[in-house]
Hints:
By secondary structure, the protein is an alpha/beta fold. 38% of the residues lie in helices and 15% in strands.
Amino acid sequence: MNPVPATPVPWSAVFGNDRRVEVEIGSGRGDTLLAAAAAAPATNFFAVEYAATAVAKLVRRAARHRLTNLRAIAPDAPCAIIHRAPDAPVAA
């Protein structure tokens, strides 16, 4: 039985704005991503990381640094990109 594909979520619904989006697959601890989000507040950053514990830590660190331009999820990356990512361009 094939699962029913999820409906894509528009970037504007994810971030609450229409700024450019950069996607990082395999963000790990997120040190580089946190630095990028802090250095470029006009860019949205979307992390896909397999390890749910790493995502939880990344989200806590982003909140601690008041980074509102960073989101992270912990699904299977191909599934997330194929079924959930919007049909919209990303910058990187």
